[in-house]
Design brief:
Order of helices and strands: HHEEEEEHEEEHEEEEHEEEHEEHEHEEEH
CATH topology of the largest domain: Aminopeptidase
Helix content: 25-40%
Number of helices: 9
Length: about 375
């Protein structure tokens, strides 16, 4: 079981998890985090115009700042049952790992630095012995149709005037995401004349046409290398069981490790949509999300720093590709990695849980990376 600072991090994560924060509705959780930042004596605490929460932990020189982020939002709706329960070395609860424990890890970083006497109070504010400022950001819009809008705003703010970006995904301990997975998302809407299921039988149904389209899309051959995927995640439409549907829609998720492969997949989808058009039926597509591709070299000093620190706590890391907030800085050629502070499973389900035991090592690793990030040559 965790002790000391790790216990405080768990207790804070439980409080954060109990504040609903669906995408686009993170304001209550953001307000809670802002007050916690202020209570910790951090500097320049504010919420930007889209809801990201910023706080600065001052360093003792003019080195470029390190930006450490964790996303506030969850995939669960406001009305979801977010009950928590503990079993042995686990805590269960929707969003506890993705990403309540990650947000709590921002505070764990501050508390651990204080424990190590790397922080002193100057005029009531926390100041570190680190060479540069550490900006802590709890950002919005990482999940689903948030389309990384929070991280886009963060990178727009700091751009390349940073030492590095370090992104926390709570359950990703042992993963080093240094490559950004490309994602394109579309909403496809079909409209038709509609009518009565008996009287107007024979008229085209938007639902029937959508079903045909789904079969064609999911039947497309996809390469094994680079790994590529297609998923229809949401389907809706129709009025009643005895009505020929006049409207139906779906949300489509396209992913690939290869930028050109993803572009080719998008072009193939567009051809299928064009071919699916028939008289009396309208098909429209709308881009609802785009997560850009990017990567660091596996030999990049930041990647190797994260690898060394994980090895020190007995973890042989998985050098990974993923769709995370790191996509934005990586796509702009900026140094960034995404790491975790504990392990867990069941993300995006009501069976989501985190393990408590790995948390102390995860916090140790986080603090070591933060300390040494200022020393590496990037």
């Amino acid at each position: 079981m965790p002790t000391g600072t790790a216990t405080r991090v768990v207790e804070l994560a439980e409080k954060i998890q109990q504040i609903p924060a669906p995408v686009f509705k993170e304001s209550r959780r953001a307000g809670f985090v802002k007050e916690k930042f202020i209570n910790e004596g951090l500097c320049d605490v504010y919420i930007d115009e889209i809801g990201d929460v910023f706080a600065r932990l001052p360093g003792n020189s003019s080195a470029k700042p390190l930006v450490v982020t964790a996303h506030l939002d969850t995939v669960f709706p406001m009305e979801a049952d977010i009950s928590l329960r503990r079993e042995a070395n686990r805590i269960y609860g929707p969003g506890i790992g993705d990403n309540s424990i990650g947000v709590a890890g921002l505070f764990g970083l501050v508390w651990t630095l204080a424990e190590q006497e790397s922080i002193k109070k100057v005029s009531g504010e926390q100041v570190t012995s680190l060479p540069g400022d550490v900006w802590l950001v709890a950002n919005v819009g990482e999940e689903g149709l948030g389309d990384l809008r929070g991280m886009r705003a963060v990178v727009d703010h700091f751009n390349g005037d940073v030492t590095a970006y370090l992104i926390l995904e709570g359950m990703a301990l042992g993963q080093i995401y240094y490559r950004a997975l490309g994602v394109e998302r579309y909403r496809i809407e079909i409209t038709g004349p509609g009518g009565h299921s008996w009287v107007d039988y024979g008229k085209p149904s938007a639902i029937h046409e959508l079903a045909k389209l789904i079969v064609k899309l999911t039947g497309m051959p996809l390469p094994d290398t680079p790994r590529t995927s297609i998923n229809v995640g949401v389907v809706s439409g129709g009025t009643s069981v005895n009505t020929i549907a006049g409207h139906a829609q779906m949300e489509l998720d396209l992913r690939s490790e290869g930028e050109q492969t993803l572009a080719g997949l998008v072009a193939h989808v567009e051809r299928i949509l064009e071919e699916a058009k028939i008289p009396g039926v309208n098909i429209e597509q709308q881009l609802i999300g785009s997560r850009p591709v990017g990567a660091l070299s596996i030999d990049h000093p930041l990647v190797q720093l994260a690898r060394r620190e994980l090895l020190k706590i007995g973890i042989n890391p998985n050098m990974a590709i993923g769709s995370t907030d790191a996509n934005i800085p990586l796509s702009r050629g900026l140094p960034a990695v995404c790491i975790g502070i504990t392990r867990g499973a069941g993300a995006h389900t009501h069976g989501e849980f985190i393990y408590l035991e790995p948390l102390e090592g995860g916090l140790q690793c986080l603090v070591s990376i933060v300390r040494k990030a200022f020393e590496i040559t990037i």
